[in-house]
Specification:
Elements (H helix, E strand, L loop, with lengths): L1 E5 L4 H12 L3 E6 L9 E5 L7 H5 L6 E4 L12 H24 L6 E7 L6 E6 L10 H13 L8 E7 L1 E3 L4 H11 L12 E2 L1 E3 H13 L5 E5 L5 E2 H12 L9 H8 L4 H4 L2 E3 L2 H5 L9 H9 L5
Parallel strand pairs: 1-2, 1-4, 2-3, 4-5, 5-7, 6-13, 7-11, 8-10
Antiparallel strand pairs: 9-12
Helix pairs in contact: 3-4, 5-7, 7-11
Length: 305
């Protein structure tokens, strides 16, 4: 397969690129930084006045385009300037991908645009599936709504368009897990906030597996939740991390401290949403890591490359 991906140098993107390239697919990575091409991986400059990625893709047969690009949402306090950068970076990248498609001769068979389970808003008393409406009660929710609206414009080219609402990704070499386990390594791990907030997570391997399913299964379109079938509460997650690392789970982190340190961004950890991958289950995706204990055990002792 030929796959074009934006945001291919980040935590999730890098894992997708490396996996598909190792399987013999050719991956074209749209990037603002210079990189040397590797086996089955071609880096193409974009998002600058001098770059014209459509010229290198014009005559290619593209099986899928994947858009993961956007400023990190979980780094730094959400100042007014930071919020604008988070939103506009996502809108701009999506608009550029749509522009590129308008200039290539062979349209991609599928377009996968990232979103997040933050789309649904914060709620601990509800369960969300792909058909659930957005509560629109948070900054991440509003960003995801705008991002998804922009991505749907790709449908004007009659291209199968998928909105991947990604949960908390558990993987090595970065992401949320690295930050979560740090206190436990120093024996000060414990419950954050009330501990009752839901964490809808997914192992990186299953995320990549679902991306593969989406590309190959032409019946899948519209929104799809990329989460494991068994979400956990923050307390359950902390206890599982402690057990996996053989560390105590005892040091509580109060809400007021999280709000003082992180401001509005503390909502990521103090609030949550229980999200189920209904569409993935309907298409009988075989989750390898459906339980958090198995996922953490695997990530503690990753397989050799």
């Amino acid at each position: 397969m030929n796959i074009v991906i934006a945001g291919g140098t980040g935590f999730i993107g890098k894992a997708i690129v490396n996996t598909f390239a190792k399987e013999g697919n050719h991956v074209y990575v749209l990037t603002r930084q210079k990189h040397a091409d590797m086996e089955n991986i071609t880096f193409i400059p974009w998002l600058s006045a001098a770059s014209h990625p459509e010229n290198k893709l014009r005559h290619r047969s593209i099986d899928a385009m994947i858009n993961l690009a956007g400023d990190p949402i979980n780094q730094g306090r959400w100042t007014k300037r930071k919020k604008e950068a988070i939103l506009q970076s996502r809108i701009r990248a999506t608009q550029e991908m749509i522009r590129i498609v308008g200039h290539v001769e062979q349209k991609p068979k599928a377009f996968i645009n990232a979103s997040a389970i933050g789309y649904y808003g914060y709620a601990n008393e509800q369960t969300f599936t792909e058909t659930s409406p957005s509560l629109g009660n948070s900054f991440p929710s509003r960003v995801c709504q705008r991002w998804e609206e922009e991505a749907k414009k790709m449908e004007a080219f009659h291209i199968r368009t998928i909105i991947a609402r990604i949960g908390v990704v558990m993987g090595n070499n970065g992401g949320a897990l690295a930050k979560m386990i740090l206190p436990y390594r120093f024996f000060v791990g414990g419950t954050v906030g009330t501990g009752r907030q839901w964490i809808s997570w997914i192992h990186m391997e299953d995320l990549i597996g679902l991306i593969r399913l989406i590309i190959e299964n032409e019946e899948i379109n519209g929104p799809i939740n990329l989460t494991a079938p068994h979400p956990v509460t923050m307390r359950e997650l902390g206890q599982a991390i402690g057990t996996t690392l053989n560390r105590p789970h005892w040091f509580p982190v109060p809400e007021w401290l999280m709000k003082l340190v992180f401001g509005e961004m503390s909502g990521f950890l103090l609030k949550g949403q229980k999200v189920l991958p209904e569409k993935a289950l309907q298409h009988q995706y075989p989750f390898r890591f459906s339980r958090i204990e198995a996922a953490l055990s695997n990530l503690k002792t990753p397989p050799s490359p």
